[in-house]
Amino acid sequence: GENVEQHPSTLSVQEGDSAVIKCTYSDSASNYFPWYKQELGKRPQLIIDIRSNVGEKKDQRIAVTLNKTAKHFSLHITETQPEDSAVYFCAASGWVGQFYFGTGTSLTVIP
Amino acid sequence: EAGVTQSPTHLIKTRGQQVTLRCSPISGHTSVYWYQQALGLGLQFLLWYDEGEERNRGNFPPRFSGRQFPNYSSELNVNALELEDSALYLCASSYRDRDNQPQHFGDGTRLSIL
Q: Judging by beta carbons within 10 Å of its beta carbon (0-12, 13-18, 19+), is residue A14 exposed, middle or buried?
């Protein structure tokens, strides 16, 4: 089955700096890669996703890049704000209905 | 649009007991997924239901089971509870399409085993 690895497990940045979280996957059949943000005690929220026919996708301060050859994808958050502090999960999916999640990155934005 | 709703929010059980968790998907969503999130860990896939059928299950023992009703709501049943079953159980729903669709999560049920 698919194996998704996520790094780093914890990340601290100064407010206004950029944050980058990286994930690798093992199954070349994976073609859908969502990212979720989970604030303490709350539900995971989809923040951005990308499909394998696209190399990059942006939504305001958030962007995701995908390198299919290397089997890795990354989340980029620019101009970080304290409210960006949360745990971020990446996921990969090939077959419909099968999702494999990374172990999460705890991001702290220091004011 | 109402989001995914789960009940109960919290539950305390003892070893050996049985528990049933409930999930109502977003209106129009036919797929329901169940995940286990142990403290400090990622989301472990448990079960996927679509159109009333179990479509896939994760690497969990048979005492984890569930079903999906005609209105697409779902139940997760866990028998013979063990201490390591203590976790947040999350339900997610999505449309079913040719390609994977975004999953929308509920707030979860926090299960504590004493």
A: exposed
